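Bumping with the actual sequence this time:
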Amino acid sequence: MENTMDKVAERTRMVNGKLTSLADLGYVAVGLDDNWQACGTGVNGSFHDAAGHPLINTTTFPSMKGMTDYGHAKGLRVGWYMNNCICAEKHFTDPTYIQKHMEESVKAIVAAGFDGVKLDGCGQFRNLTWWGQLLNETGRSVMIENCHWGGTVPGQTTGDAPCTGTTMPSNCPYNFFRSSTDINPSWNSIFSNLQTTIKFQGNPPLSRPGTWAYPDMLEVGNMATYNEDRTHFGAWCIVSSPLILGHDLTNEALTDKIWPIISNTEAIAVNQAWAGHPGRLVKQWGGVGGNDMQMWAKALPEGKQAVLILSNNDGNMTASIDLEKDIGMSGTVSVRDIWNHKDLGKATGTFSAGTIETHDSRFYIFSQ
């Protein structure tokens, strides 16, 4: 964890002529995931003791507070992980103990200085409303990641976290929620996970400030080709997904390879912008399934529109944008190429994106 924190904070690569860290770009949170626990050492073979305290594998993690202090000293936020999947806890029935388990877990999060917690869906402690209430009562601001694989989402009236999700900010008791199953570094996985965000892009959208839909972490750097890495990143940007790097940050050559993608400040700005909608699928066409090509768009401030066209095809295909029909822009517009950081001049009526190679993409901003 501390090695990863070092890599996030160090300024060894250039962006726009200036030495820049991942933290400078906005990647400011580092999360500890599963396998911190001392499996089987607790009550009834769990990793919590009889008083409800979580039991940590101190051989690997001798001091959680020392680790979070290390991150905070570098200006980072540090996240933990609960309701674990490895040696998942599912067998508790005593209400008094269950309450102690929840309360002591929350106390441990706060005492160790964590700024966020990922709550997985594997154990029995899935009640996100209860987690949120207990964390709020501590007075510490802790970001909650809902990792229930699309099973607990805004708009539900029953279950682990009922909420309308239509207030501003969202009234759901979590700050971002998985819309999908686990991702893996394959094109089919990232494409199918992207589609799970569509149901939250309605009017009003359920992915919004306070509670963002995310189709799992990024596999940028782990994909088969650079084109897939870039398209993957652009897709997560256009739907306002939290950007969670999933490559090995200690692999310098790998970070060098994808640095032009993950440090693209124009793409990141699209991801971070809010003008009333998180981004949407505009249309798709081609192939047996009718989705060989997809066009996504996101409204930006000042009446601008970001557009991502991606190829889900095994060959080259051409694409064009009907400016008025597809993104509601009439008259003459200015076109900015996000991937190449280049102004492409003016367009009226229809704009041609040219030929797009297999699993590649075009990423634009249109403005009037």
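The tokens above came from a reply further down the thread. Residues 111 and 283 are 49 Å apart (CA to CA).
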